[in-house]
Amino acid sequence: MSWRKETRRAERGYHHGNLKEALLQAALGLIAEKGPGGFTFADAARMAGVSPAAPYRHFRDRDELLSSIAQRGFEQFEQVLTKAWDDGRPDTVSAFERVGKAYLAFARNEPAYYSAMFESGLPVDLNPTLMAASERAFGIIRAAAERLAALTPPGVTRPPALMMALHIWSLAHGVASLFGRGDAARRKLPMAPEELLEAGVLIYLRGLGFSQERPTSPEKPTESKPSGPWGPVPK
């Protein structure tokens, strides 16, 4: 009798709504509550109000469900970073500054997606679709690093643009994961996470030889006004 009730409930959920979306939202709620490793496939089904067998209509197993959430997270992350970068307008460092703030804001505003993306232990390199989504998001940081690399003062030895992108990603991710997240794992900090990231990038830019003036693209005259939150860089 119980099995028949579960089956009827699952069929109602499947026919009257979007079962796949309901499962994704249920899993997101569980991630927010328990973390990406703290629930089972059956828990997600129960949260969605369907039978334990119903999720197999759309997902092979729990890992595939998590992968779908992580992929959606990276797609949203890409949109957020793309908007922040705005193709480097009005100047590279201002746009770069916005990307860093957007990274922290995403971790704070979307902790469940952030956990699924970076803390679920999924083998990203074995999932081409998930890998492609993550690479597109990282591509925004790489584009910013390539633009910065092109502005490095003459005579300064710098790492390759890809390594610069990885340095900046590591810095932003470390600050976001430890101090900027929006869940209970956030560590206390005697300053704003944005200030911590700002200072770290300022030091990084100083190491690349940028002076007090904000670096600009070669085709534009150098601006003499003080730089923004990631400057001025001390001489």
Count of strand segments: 0
Whole-angstrom Rg? 22 Å
β-strand percent reads: under 5%
Calculate the terminal CA-CA distance, rounded to whole Å: 77 Å
**CATH level-4 homologous superfamily of the largest domain:** Tetracycline Repressor, domain 2
**Low-pLDDT regions:** 1-16, 215-235
Average pLDDT:
84
Strand-pairing-aware structural class: mainly alpha
CATH class of the largest domain: Mainly Alpha
Q: So what's the overall shape?
A: elongated
**Would you list the SSEs in sequence order as H and E?**
HHHHHHHHH
For the record, the CATH architecture of the largest domain stands as Orthogonal Bundle
What is the name of the CATH topology of the largest domain?
Tetracycline Repressor, domain 2
The DSSP helix count reads 9
What characteristics describe this protein?
Arc Repressor Mutant, subunit A, disordered C terminus, single chain, 0% strand, 2 domains, 235 residues
Structure notes:
The structure is a single chain. With 235 residues, this protein is an all-alpha fold. It folds into 2 domains: 1-59, Arc Repressor Mutant, subunit A, CATH 1.10.10; 63-235, Tetracycline Repressor, domain 2, CATH 1.10.357. It has 9 helices and no strands. Helix 2 packs across helix 3 (41-48) and helix 2 packs across helix 4.
